[in-house]
Design a protein that fits this description.
By secondary structure, this protein is mainly α. Helix content is about 70%, strand content about 0%.
Length: about 450
Amino acid sequence: MEISKNKHLTIGINDDIPFGQAVILGLQHVLAMDVYVPPFIIATAVAMSSSDASGLIQSTFLGAGIASLIQVLFFLKLPVCQGPSFVPVGAIIGIYFGAKGMDTVLGASIVGAIAVVLLGFTGIYKYIVRHFIPTIVSGTIIMIVGLTLLPTAFTSNIYPATETLSANQNMLLAAITAAILILFSMLGDYFPGLGKYFRISSVIIALVIGTTIASFMGGVDFQSVAEAPLFSLPKLAFVHYGLHFDISAILTMLVIYMVLLAETTGTWYAISSVTEEPITDEQINKGVIGEGLGCMVAALVGTTPVTGYSTNAGIISITGVASKKVFVMASCWFILLSFIGKLSALIHAVPSSVIGGVFAVVCVIILLSGFRVIKNQAFSERELYIIGVPLIIAIGLLFMPTEIKESAPQFLQYLLDSPIALSAIAAIVMNKLIPVKN
C-alpha cells in the first residue's frame, strides 16, 4: 500500500487500500452522511403512505450510490459522495401539493439536470469559477459551509427529545460520541502504529460505541429492524411513477439547481483543501457534467436532486483516508442499502444524537479547513470585509425568523433557505467590487 505524501493524510486519493478496509471505511462515510433525512422530511410533509415513504428512502440510497460512482470514477474524480440535498425540500413539497404527485417533481428534476449538464458541456461554469472564485473567495465559502451546517447538528440531531430519549440524554450521547471520535482520531497522531488504524476507523468506532450506550438507555429501537423486509425494491420512474412536465415547476427547479451548484462548488473546494489536491478548471467543468448526470439518474430512479456532501471532507480530515476506493465502496453500500430493507432500517436505528455528535465535529473541521485555505492570504482591510460580510450574511440567514422568509417571493425563499449560496454570491461580488490597493 502506498503512503500519501500529504502530511495530513494517511492514505491519499490515488493510493491503494485493502478491500476489507475499503468496505468498512466506506460504511462509515455512509453512516455519517445521514442521507435518509431529506426523503424522510418530504415523505412526512406530504403524508406518503408507509410503503411510499420506504420506497422514496430506498430510491434515495440508489440515486446517491449511482451518482457517487459517476462523480468518483468518471467526472470529478475526487473523493466525494453524492447525497440528497436539503435545499430543494421546501420547493419539492410545494410542487408535490401544487401538481398532486411525484410525477411533476421528477419531470422538473430531469429538465433541470439536463440544463446543468449543458452548462458543463459549454464550459460556462468553468469560466465563472476561474474568474470569480479566487483563493480568498473559495476559502470563505468553505468556512461558510461548515458554519451553516453546524447549527443543524444541534437543532435537528442533538436537542430534540424523542419518545425514548430526553434532551439531556441526547446531549450526553452527543458529547460522548464526539469525545470518542476525537480520542480515537488523536491516537493516530500519538501512536503511529496501532493508533493509525484507530484514526482510520474513528468515525465508525464512535458511532458503534455511541449506539451501544444509547441502547442501554433504551434509545435504540431494533423492532423496526426485525419488522423490515430483507429484500424490497425502491420506487422508480416509469415503473411506479410517471413523468409530468409543468413550466412553473421546471422554472422553480432551475433556480434550485443553480443554488445547488453554488453549494457543491464549496464542497469541491473543501475536499481539495483537506486532500491538498488542487482542483483544476477542467475538473470543475467535468464535475458540473457529473452533477447533472447524477441528478438525472436520481430522478429516473424516483428521488430528489443529489449533490456533493461536505461531510466527506470532514471525515477525510479526521481519519486521514482519502482513497477513491473507499468512496467507490461507499457508493456500493448505498446501492446495496436501496434493496436490503433490514440494512436500511439498521442505519435508520442509529440515534440522531449519536450522528449529531459526529456531525458537529465534522462541521468544525470543515470550517477550519476553510481557514487553512485563506490563512496565508494578505489580510488587509479589503480581505477582512470579503471574509467577514459573507459570514454575517450566513449567520443572519440562519437565525432569520420563518415569517420573514415566508413573506418573500417564492423564488427568493429558495435563496433565503440557502445561506451558503447567498453568502457565496456576496463573497464573489465583494471581491470584484472592492478595488485592490496598489
